[in-house]
Each structure stands twice: as structure tokens, then as C-alpha cells.
Amino acid sequence: MSHPEFLTLVTSSWNAPYPQQDAAKLLTAKFKALRNNLKRWQAQLFNMKKTIANVKLVISFLDSIEQWRDLAPHEWNFREILNQKLASLLHQLMVYWKQRGNIKWVQLGDENSKIFHANATLRHRRNLITSLSDHSANLLHDHSLKDDLI
User: Fold this and answer.
1) What's the alpha-carbon Rg for the chain, to the nearest Å?
2) E strands, the chain, where?
3) Residue 30, pLDDT above cutoff 80
4) Higher-confidence position of 11 and 45
5) pTM to 2 decimal places
6) At what angle do helices 48-68 and 73-108 cross, to 10 degrees?
7) What is the DSSP string of 6-26?
8) Domain range spanning residue 45?
9) How many independent structural domains does the chain possess?
10) Strand 132-133, strand 139-140: pairing
């Protein structure tokens, strides 16, 4: 995960002082604390849809006010902060679902199932180069011509 909040959480959980002297007990305590902190962090993700909806509602409220009058500088700044927050929340949600999709792929990808075949087909279509254009802007569709161009 490349989320800076997540990395900070992991680092602070792992580097926190623990009273254990035994290395095995210290390692166990660190993992337990990290697991508990990650569970709390994950619980916040479920509120993300509600938070996104609330941020959108406030932005639309400010937009409707702007139709009747000009926004004051502090209102305009607040709307800009909300737009940045919305972009951040949507990015976090995208990362969450992308990683969840990867977890599903790890769990179900090796099975000879519909999800495996659908993902394989999707990956093939995504990686397929259907045509290339040469220097004179001619489209090349034949595999050998594309190979020669490359």
C-alpha cells in the first residue's frame, strides 16, 4: 500500500516501545499491536462512503449558494479544501478497491473458474496492441509489420 497514512500507522505501531525483554514476546506484542491498529484503521474505511457523500453534499450546498451570491473568501477557500479532500478520499477508495481486487485474484485466481477466465481475457485484451502507426501515419495491423516497426 502506498498510502502515507497507512505507512505512518505501520511505522508508529512497529516502533512503539514495548516492555517485553524476550525477543519472541516482543515480536508477538508488536504484531498484536499492529493488528489492532490496522483493524481500527480499516473500520474507518467503511465510513468512507458516508464521508464522501457528506463532502459532496457540502460542496453542492456551497455551489447552490454561489448561484445566488458571490462566495466570501473563507467560503471559497473552504470549498477548495473540500474539493481537495474529496479527491483524496476518492483516491483512497480507488486504492482500497484495487487492493481488494488483488486479494480476490490471489484467493481465486488459480482456480479454474469463471473469474480466472474473465481476468485472463481482460488482461489479454488490455495487453494486446491492435495497431501501430509508422512514421508516415499509416496504421499497421499485421503482426509481422508491427514487429518490424518495433
Assistant:
1) 25
2) 132-133, 139-140
3) yes
4) 11
5) 0.46
6) 150
7) HHHHHHHHHHS-----SHHHH
8) 4-111
9) 2
10) antiparallel
